[in-house]
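Chain A, query sequence.
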Amino acid sequence: MWRSAVQPPTGPGVNEKTLPPADKNADGIAVVDLGALHVTRVLKGISDPEQLAVAPDGKRLYVASEDSGAELVLDAQSGAVLATLPVGSEPEGTAVSPDGKVVYVTSEGDDRVAVIEVGRDSTGDRVAAQVPVGKRPRGVVVSRDGSRVYVACEEAGNIAVLDAQTRTVIDSIALEGTGTHPMGVALSRDGGTLFVTTGRGGTVVAIDSATHRIIATQQVGGRPWGLAVGPDGRVYTANGPADALTVVAPGNPMRVAETVDVKGSPWGVVAIPQA
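Chain A, predicted structure.
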């Protein structure tokens, strides 16, 4: 994903009016050839893109456009914008249900999750519900069977658990620790464990997805945000201020298996499944 190339990165509390204007011409979604590891093209038409998700059939992209308050539906092949759906202030996290019929989008500014029902074509997509959750929701992930939705609520310091059928919050998992701000969420390959990064808390937390009990906590440092679970079951976190990628071996206790130096203040990470 590409963001503005002009506006510098900033932290919470910064008055954006004092910053240089963003170069909107730099906004877009980069398409990467995984074999050659180079950008083949950039999909345009998305202002200030945040997180994105791909439909299970690979035909559509769902992208949160933060400054427009909308979720954009793109044709994955052509990059054409098929639909623009208002979802609330500062949308960020995006996740698609395993059957591809529902898309969930977090709204940082409105403290809620938009539930989008996917139609047979883009004109049938609609926002069917707005679910209030904890303050400043960030990452979102759907359980393997599609029955539960887990939302990281940064300023509330918890994980909101939604029932996908009733579209209500059925539990709240509190995360303890100094500076803990839940950011990214990902599930283990079997769906039994939910992993959460805590931002300034500097940790990865493992939660039993059935009982909602905390299994283990591992210090990784460097303000971990984005995370992914690899084909081997290990957990990868992007630690921006540390310019590092941390590799965590799951278990109780968890342990840091490796720290990889990278450049450019990494924000997100993707683990590619084995062929």
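DSSP finds no helices and 22 strands in the chain. Confidence is low (pLDDT under 50) at residues 1-7.
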